[in-house]
Design brief:
The protein is mainly alpha-helical. The chain is 52% helix and 4% strand.
Amino acid sequence: MNVNVKRTPAKKKAHELAKYLRGEHPDYTYLKSVFRYLRTELEIQSPKTSTDLLPDVPTEEEIQRYYEAVWHTRNMQDMVMIKTLLYTGVRVSELINIHLEDIDFVRCQIRINQGKGGKDRIVPFPVGFKEVLAMHVDSMQRKQATYLFESSWKRKYSDRGVRKILEKYVLAAGLNRAISPHRLRHFLLTWLKKQGIDDALIQPYSGHSSRQSLEVYSRLSIGEAQKEYDEVMGKFPV
C-alpha cells in the first residue's frame, strides 16, 4: 500500500457519501451490501480474524475465590448451576435447556439436546458431584419442574438470567474480571488440557468439531474419554 497517497479525512469522506446517499433513504442492510460491493470494486479484502488468539481464561486462584463467594451464600440452585457449568463446559444456551430427564446418574452424564449446530452430545460430571446434583434434581421434581434450572415462576432460566447470577458473585468475590459462562467453559477445557488429556478425548464433550479432526474423533468412544476425565477431575480446584 502506498502510504504517500493523499486521502480525504475519513469524517469528511463519510459526510460526502452521506449527502450522496441520503436521498435514497438507505437502511443498514442496504449500506452493508453497498460497501461489500465497494470493497469488491476496489479489490479490498477484509482482514481475517486470527484463529490463534488465546481465549481469556480465569486463573485457578480466581475460580477458587469465585466459588468460595458462591458457597458462602448457601444458595443451592446457584451452587449447582455454577458447578454444572464448571464441570461440564456446556454453553449457557445448552444449560438452560437441560431437562431433568436428561441426567443419567448411573453413568454420571448429561445429554445435551440440540447443542451448537443442532447437534446432540453427552457431557460428563464428576462422581463427587452426583449426590449434590441428585438432591437438586429431587427438589425440582417435587416442584414438578421440567428443566434442571427453573425460576420460582416455573419458567426455565434465560441466558440473561444466568449471566446476572454469575455477575453478582464476581462482585462478592472482589474480582476485577467478569466471569461469564463462556469463561467457565474455557477454564474447564484449558484445565483438562493441562492435565495431559488429549484433544481427541476432550472434543466429544466440548462440542467442537473440525473437518480436519473428525476422522480421529469418530474412532473414540465416550467411555474412553470419560475414564480419562474421571481420573483427573479429583484434582479440580473446586
